[in-house]
Amino acid sequence: MISRPEFGPFVLLIAEILVFWAINPAFLSPGNISNTLAFTVELGLIALAMTLLMTSGEFDLSVGSVFGFAPVVMWTLFNSGTTSLEVGFLAALLIAAGIGLFNGVFVTRLKIPSFLVTLGMLLVVRGSALFITSGFPQRTWNAGDQWLAEVLVGDFMVGPFRLYMSLFWFILAAVLLHYLLTRTKAGNWIQAAGGNPNAAMARGVNVVRTKLGLFMLSSMLAAFAGVISSIRTSAANPNSGTGYELEVIAMVVIGGTALAGGRGTIIGTVLGIFILRVMRNGIVLIGVPGLAYNIFIGAIILGMMALHSWLERRHNAGV
Question: What element of type H or E holds 157?
Answer without folding.
Answer: strand 155-158
